[in-house]
Amino acid sequence: MVDITAELVRALVAEQFPEWRDLHVRPVARQGWDNRTFRLGDELVVRLPSAEGYVAAVAKEDRCLPSLAGHLPFAVPAPVATGRPAAAYPFPWSLRHWLPGVTVEDATGIDRTRLARDLGVFLTALRRAPVGPGPASGAHSAFRGCHPSVYGYEVEQALERVGSAVDAASCRHIWAEAVRSAWPGTPTWVHGDVAAGNLLTTDGKLSAVIDFGGCAVGDPACDLVMAWTYFSAEDRTAFREAVGLSADTWRRARGWALWKALVTMAELSSPDSEGMQSRVLAQVLADPVTG
Fold this sequence. Notes:
- It contains 9 helices and 10 strands.
- By secondary structure, the chain is of the alpha+beta class.
- It is globular, with a radius of gyration of 19 Å.
- Helix 4 packs across helix 8, helix 5 (168-178) crosses helix 8 (247-265) and helix 8 runs antiparallel to helix 9.
């Protein structure tokens, strides 16, 4: 990964966008994995891919976000300009309008049941948005929007690694249920990474959804995993009702949540120093959220 600092961002902006060269550059408090993000003055934000595998998202978001925004009930990032690769930084990068708010991950006083309903409303609107020239799901979306069976090998590999630390028989049963069905309708938009760190709140209520780097057109099941990664049993019921999707879709969603928990616990994915995914797995095993 490239070492991305405020000094680097300041130099890139001065070279390519001199009209903003005097604006203060500072990193945001909590950084993501795929991109490094910096405030530029009070109204702008700079996002730079952290490695080559995340570069395709820059052009994709620039193309897709403006057309999606008018169909969604909450704010999404608005592209302002696109930076070019440079000697000190080899990838394209983006400038966006800053969206105020606190991530669900960091916010306090959230009414989780209301959040579950609001998120369901957002995902319903996203599914109904015209797909137009939206990209079919695939490697660019880390296969979000594809059938969960694309990660079948990783599930088995993870189960072998974690051994008796998990109930392998129950995991395999859930996975078998997940891959038994497929999305029967027309492919729809998917966000690809609906997580507490990508939802912004204002006064404890959902106000914006960010980071569309994994967006694609395909099966919306992958967007439901927050049922297990964040919500409690009561909130899951509200989320299920607001989303309005079939039991089969929820079974595939459960498979997505199972896969992510297992590969993280098996150290085949991003680090989990706080052990969150073992707690997620317990929720996945306990609650199918199918009604």
